[in-house]
Amino acid sequence: MLTEISTDLINICDELIIDTNKSTKQNNESQGVYSTNGRVYKKMDEGNFVRVKNQQKHLIISDNFADFKKNLSIISSYSILKQCGNVLQDHKNLCLAIIFTSREIELNKWYESNTKVVTIDHSVYNPLDLEQEALNYINDIPSEDRIDYVELGCNILSATKINFLQTDHHVMSPTLEGFALREIITKACGYESLKSKDVYNALRAFCHWCSIRGILHCLDIDGLKIDPALIRSFETFPEQPKWIKDTVFARMPAVV
After folding, report:
1. Is residue 82 left, alpha or beta, with left meaning phi > 0 and alpha meaning psi from -120 to 50?
2. Deepest in the core among 119, 164, 186, 255, taking most CB within 10 A?
């Protein structure tokens, strides 16, 4: 009798696991995420598939207004910066710019299907254990200073997208390249930071959280194939200084 009950319970558990796996698979596929042979692929807006790599550096966001109060982008960006050596301690201005701008990326939807952002349901990591630590890190920053940090963050994003347009790379190592990016980082972090591995890793993660096409549109690049909805989202992106825009035409584009 006990043997029969145990067998029945095992069978029920097996069925529940199968149902759960099916449900998870269906939910992932409804989001355009597919897994095969241990690899994860995401369906792009254009219909092609791109392999998803290094998901530990994907920014976690909420994609609906009801969940914005959870501050997922702030906590997630802090947790990613915590993986970048001592950057949180050594370059707080840069980190605050990244954290506050990540929040704007989330709220304004400055991303598209090929941007390295993910909802928490599809994330491979959970940063919520760092919630209080992350909030303490930004807690004493006045609202007017937060605006300045967002402007700095958007300047950095613009400079990295100009690099991508001109060289096919957002950031370079062992020394940061690109006139605009070098000027911005030198002013924010000091000249020595141009060779900092921690700064490089922080920028490398940050630059992939925001749409390339959206920013290039804001930099007045002509001939872009861009969705009207993305254009509307980027209406809130801060106007970039003329000197940054002028560097777009300093060299021929590598990406057409």
Report:
1. alpha
2. 164
